Amino acid sequence: MDLLEEYRRATFTFESGDPLGAARMLEPIVEAEPHNAAVRQLLARAYFNSAQLAGAEKQLRTLIERDPSDHYAHHVLGRTLERAGRFSEALPHLRLAAAMKRHDDYEDALRRVETWVGKNGGRTSYAAE
């Protein structure tokens, strides 16, 4: 298997609006190249965009474990946890991302989660309801 060509095909598939198809293509590449951060990041995004939140979380936590200064991985992990209704777990990652890099998307996500927590009496997840 030509991993570079497969990665290019998976990237095209993802960018064409088929994150599920891209994830299927990326899984064997990550298995063959487990330390390739770019492939793992694209797989995490494909999982996120296809609502496979557990898969996205696993890939993002691996990226952060290997590089704690990866602001983008912290942001996407925060968004993944937010989407799963796990606000208390999302906040630290969103705060870190916003502190590491000024970016409108990072600040918007952080404000949104902080506002949700504030409006819900400190409850930090849907499970608390």
Automatic annotation (TrEMBL):
Pfam families: TPR_19 (PF14559). This is Tetratricopeptide repeat protein. Gene3D superfamilies: Tetratricopeptide repeat domain. InterPro entries: TPR-like_helical_dom_sf (IPR011990), TPR_rpt (IPR019734). It comes from the Bacteria.
